[in-house]
Amino acid sequence: MKVTFKIWRQENAKSNGGFQSYEVDGLTDDMSFLEALDHLNEILVGQNQKTIAYEYDCREGICGQCGVFINGRAHGPLDNITTCQLHMRSFTDGQTIVVEPWRAKAFPVIKDLVVDRSALDNIMEQGGYISAKTGTAPEANAILVGKDVADKAMDAAACIGCGACVASCKNASAALFTAAKINHMNSLPQGKQEAHRRVLEMSRQMELEGFGSCTFTGACEVECPEGISITNIAEMNARRAMAKWHNL
Amino acid sequence: MVLYAKIPNGPLENKWRNYQITSQLINPANKKKLNVIVVGSGLAGAGAAATLAELGYDVKCFCYQDSARRAHSVAAQGGINAAKNYQHDGDSVWRMFYDTLKGGDFRSREANVYRLAELSAPLIDHYVQQGVPFAREYGGVLVNRSFGGVHVQRTFYARGQTGQQLLLAAYSQLYKMKRAKKVQMFPRHEMLDLVVIEGKAKGIVVRDLTTGELKRFAADAVVLATGGYSRVFRLSTLAIGCNGSAIWKAHKRGAFFAAPSFTQIHPTALPQTSEAQSKLTLMSESLRNDGRIWVPKKKDDDRNANAIPEEERDYYLERRYPSFGNLAPRDIASRAAKERIDAGYGVGRLKNAVYLDFKHAIERFGIEIIKDRYGNLFKMYKKITGVDAYEEPMQISPAAHFSMGGLWVDYELMTTIPGLYAIGECNFSDHGANRLGANSLLQASIDGYFVLPNTINNYLANALKEDHPTTEHPEFEKVEKEVAAQINKLLFIKGDKTVDHFHRELGKVMWQECTMSRNKEGLEKAISQIQKIKDAFWKEVNVTGGHHEMNTELEKALRLADFIELGLLMCTDALEREESCGAHFREEHQTSDGEALRHDEKYSYVSAWEYHNGNFKLHKETLEFANVQPTVRSYK
Ligand SMILES: Cc1cc2nc3c(=O)[nH]c(=O)nc-3n(C[C@H](O)[C@H](O)[C@H](O)COP(=O)(O)OP(=O)(O)OC[C@H]3O[C@@H](n4cnc5c(N)ncnc54)[C@H](O)[C@@H]3O)c2cc1C
Ligand code: FES
């Protein structure tokens, strides 16, 4: 299989970037997309050129480190998967594949396809936790949690923090990410004590980081590898209204 | 040198309590004067960093990923064990202790293993309180399932994403303490060397992966929590960035390396399908609760799995191990798979796989229950292979998965370098020669949250009386120069082969000779081959790009340079141990029906290797079993 990769190259945060094309032969169907890029990088080394920087770690769709824009879509042509789970069988022989980094003001490019997503950690820092010091927990079955509640918390908690929601949103909003975390913790009995603070502080930080606001286009849930539903955003907004009212 | 494990006095049940009663404490006002470096942000590292910060220490935490939340603990699927006995099925701390010791084929320390079992129950309380959405019954209580090698249900899980949920909990506590300004976080920083001053660990040299800058950090104690090193085989279930560099550099600076060759080969990963493959994806062992493993009875049977009738299927685990069947421990299940595959019964494109079949479970429980239990694993299987496992059996194959070996540590989790601790998968402690499923999220968490924060005082209480180390010390200068020299050397070779080329070569040798079954001739051959790979690597590799920029090629080269040396030690260790135990199966030492044959009179010790100018010197920590009698580990 042979394809043309058109890839965004950028030396560092300060320099201007641009696209470069690479014709790559010798690929197979069952190679993953990232393995195809690995293959290209080995060719570049053979030509004494610098390799293309892109991110990954687990290569099984759970760590959230990978993520690029492929032919105009976050994580490529399929719904609800990560870049590392994409295989070359999703492309055709001879196709041109355009690869860009996540584009969002809050995610500056570091190099080539690598962006800085520490804004997401900053949101988490402002209350994305339950204050429970090691050694202070009660017996685990002392507080019952209904299966429906646990399942719903788990649906939201499944977020891998890849940033595809931000990248696919025309407003570059981080509402889905933030909502998922808030709803995970606020729906569990253990998270209730800090529920109002959590939603106010995390959503405030989301705005401070320079993410846009959500206009419910729904683009994010299509690209979310975990299929996290945008109803989470409505739920966050309701929680926020309640928290504001509570704090009046 | 005599290895002193510092096991506390008293009966097994009281040892940890006795330790806590007698260990030194530090006045809270003094704790904030003490700095601790934690390298790693997985369950072990994040748990330790957050807890040490809560206790008042000044903590710096490092990881190579862009966020602490991505440490490879995130990938664990199946679950975490605890002796809660919620299922009323006869579990207890003692039984968990015994299962773990036996699972490890009696090559670990009684006192450590007992502590692991003892602290497991409070750990579940702890995670629930931090917001981990563990699976629940309709009535609201926690659910359990079984994992390989035991007869009770003691595994807690959060769908198929247990590691992710535990890690997010640990990461959230870490960021809670960052917000409190007690932890400084250094993501995208890779530790490249350890600084030892007057025999004590006093700091590290790291490379800032964004800028390429080398940086020095000094501290009163250094904790390594850098995870497993099974990427030495290249193809493994580990993340691509997982490395052995931090512990290898510590080893070269004096820390003993214990049981380096004890590697767990997981029986249920997806098979390799091509040369270009970069990783083997794990399918959780929990699948073996309901899935049945088989191969065709006929060699080279090319029929589709569904076309092979029941009577022509060989459920070889059920046949060989009727008592445990499909839930036989990992080492046994992997070796049994390899035996069938090598004998020509393998299935799949490269004939390197066996079937894992859910047909009977679906008939018995209905598809909805199976979906609820394993839905996301089936989805993942489909994404990767394009096959629907509700319709036809999965194809699975053994893959390198977990390092039982690691830096030697005593009961306090301190290495042979005072002030240097190793926690989580990067140490050798509780799992002996084979780890039971769902015991290592447990071990990483217990080490980080419960043990280290209680043992580090004992050392730091004395450090208070000493001067704080500074990065101006000539030793920092010297170590940084050595690191820079190694980087420059790599960049100036300008050969004609890629880093990946050498990693593939190393992986092939290691996989062939140092995994499920080993023999003298093969290991000796492997050592000479790896030596050749090493020489060639340092002459022929090409690392493009520069030092002072983000350079992923250079990162890979630095990690591989250490893996090559580590591979040598692993083969040396496997060669030295003339017995079979757990995952270490020496073909020369087996029973007449092909099971592992231990030699307790000669090998009931932990091998701890000292580095000496490129040579390895063996030290032995004799294992004493005062509470249980090592038996032949039978799962028949
Ligand atoms: C696919 C898979 C599934 C698993 N499933 C289970 C399961 O179901 N149950 C179970 O009990 N166990 C399971 N395990 C094992 C378990 O997940 C690990 O043993 C455990 O999570 C290790 O935790 P850790 O904190 O020691 O290391 P890790 O989580 O690997 O963390 C290592 C940390 O060290 C950092 N680091 C590494 N090297 C450097 C360096 N040189 N410089 C700076 N930082 C560095 C990394 O950035 C990372 O933060 C599984 C393992 C795998 C691979
Ligand atoms: S590399 Fe981990 S999610 Fe893709």
TrEMBL record, chain A:
Tell me if Lipid biosynthesis is a UniProt keyword of this record: no
Q: What's the catalysed reaction?
A: a menaquinone + succinate = a menaquinol + fumarate
**Limits of the 4Fe-4S ferredoxin-type domain:** 150-179
- Please give the superkingdom of this protein's source: Bacteria
Q: What is this protein called?
A: Fumarate reductase iron-sulfur subunit
Which molecular function GO terms apply here? 2 iron, 2 sulfur cluster binding; 3 iron, 4 sulfur cluster binding; 4 iron, 4 sulfur cluster binding; electron transfer activity; metal ion binding; succinate dehydrogenase (quinone) activity
Cofactor: binding details: Binds 1 [4Fe-4S] cluster. Binds 1 [3Fe-4S] cluster.
Q: Where is the 2Fe-2S ferredoxin-type domain?
A: 1-103
- Which PANTHER family is this protein grouped with? SUCCINATE DEHYDROGENASE, SUCCINATE DEHYDROGENASE IRON-SULFUR PROTEIN
Instruction: List UniProt keywords, sorted A-Z.
Output: 2Fe-2S, 3Fe-4S, 4Fe-4S, Iron, Iron-sulfur, Metal-binding, Oxidoreductase
Q: Which cofactor does it need?
A: [4Fe-4S] cluster; [3Fe-4S] cluster; [2Fe-2S] cluster
- In the Enzyme Commission scheme, what number(s) does this protein have? 1.3.5.1
- The organism named in the record is Croceitalea dokdonensis DOKDO 023
GO BP terms: namely:
respiratory electron transport chain; tricarboxylic acid cycle
Keyword Iron assigned:
yes
> Which family is it part of?
Belongs to the succinate dehydrogenase/fumarate reductase iron-sulfur protein family.
